[in-house]
Amino acid sequence: MNKIKKVGIVIKPHAPEISKIIQELTRWLKERKIECILEKPAAEKIGEKSFTSREEIAKKVDLIIVLGGDGTFLSISHLAAKENVPVLGVNLGSLGFLTEVPVDELYQTLENYFNGKREIISFRKMLKAKVGEEIYYGLNDIVINKGALARIIQLGLAVNGNYLGILRADGLIISTPTGSTAYSLAAGGPILSPGIPAIILTPICPHTLSFRPMVLPIEFKIKIKLLTKGEEVYLTVDGQRGRPLNAGDCVEVEEAEFSLTLISSPRRNYFQLLREKLGWGGTPKIRKS
């Protein structure tokens, strides 16, 4: 059994019926002698005066529950992973790849986790990006792309110290398997099962059409140097954080030293999630062996 004493609650403030959901969840947890640590927006929704900032909440709890969507989940994932705190994502809109638990499955999922059901837990690889002395961590992807009015940019690429070539494109996505169904997929990258230890390089609108997505072992180190001068270019991590890049800047990307512990729904597996999110649909025709 997982001994949980404190649970953090992170929310998307404008989600429908969010106040009611927070009230029900905190009541359910308190009935089980579990302390609730709310971030400020969550506390304000129910008139609670005590709260903790999103940046600090992972340091104070044994589990984080995200009430919102994948964007809200990504905003807390790197902080939770650093502290080795599991995260359960509850989607309050359409089903998400990260926030895959609907509200009506929340309490069953919590009961399963509290009772030690290991099959609902997965460990997701993360990426570490270094630019000079600055370090960023991402669950989905590290993206280098041009600004809205910029022309094609040129990026020098090296893998494990071996020169790969110059990419002329709108940008480059360096993705984890978890992020393979996000921006990388939209740019033509492959779908990888989350458990595969790999890094995906997906060019964004490459000028040379033969520059195709690549899948590399997770232990490989990628180095990208911005060669273009005088254009707006940005480094973005999980669509949440980042910084502008200047000509000559180098971005070094490798596997992070920690992973995220993700709690999934006990009612669906990864392949069901793919069917639902990508609209593959249909009635199953293949029997389990």
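Above is the first protein from milestone M3; the second protein from the same milestone is given next.
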Amino acid sequence: MMAAAVAATAMTMVSCDGGSSADLKDGVDSMAYDLGVGQAPNLKQAMVMQMGVDTMYLDEFIKGMKEGAVNEADPKKEAYMKGLEVGAQIQQMAKGLSNEVFAGDSTKTVSVKAMLNGFIAGLKGTATMTPEEAFADFNAKLEPIRNANIEKQYGENKAAGEKYLIENAKKEGVKTTASGLQYKVLVEGTGALPTDTTQVKVNYEGRLIDGTVFDSSYERNMPFTVDLAQPRVIPGWVEALKMMPAGSKWEVTIPADLAYGSSNMGQIAPFSTLVFTIEVLK
């Protein structure tokens, strides 16, 4: 009986983080404790993988966790704790922007202090521009940097496309429009020309200049409909379709600036010149 009593006492008194004890006064306390123990592995994984906390500083993490839990009802302390969380997020934002601005060069970084000061000025209302103006200014500064980095990375692809266009323009039957779009009539259509509000039903095959097929309605056995009132296709397609009478089949070569430009579309790399076989069904 005495051994059982000792065991029961041990179950209700638990030593935590090297000194302080937690009284489990009843079954509900025990249930809450069990939940904490059960969730601890998930918390530890999140601490390392999502929050980026080094396990070497586990004691400091626990200290902050205890302060946050114990002082939850203190608005001032809670505001401070939330500020710490946001500060860590701002640091991650600065790292992400550094990676984009400096193309992964780890020796160069965007100033966390400058970003932080921007947040503070915005929160306190002391900034010299509106949030909309600030975003516009940010994008105006970032866009040329982003494009320069992409062009540096995919410059060879851009040059290959430009060379292909020069050579393709010399081929028999190829015509070049004022925009730089190139086309060759394979089948002369005799139907009506589409208007700005026409729905055009087509079959097509899209290729890179090395011949790689990246999309084909023929393979899917599923024609594609383009509503010229709201095209939702690349500009080169719109220009070509408006010149193609029903029944036409053309080979259309589209420069990068009339296709996806500097955007990375996965299989279609930035600055890709694209070649389409387009057949207007109706």
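Note on the second protein: Helices lie at 2-12, 27-49, 58-70, 75-101, 112-124, 131-169, 217-220, 235-241.
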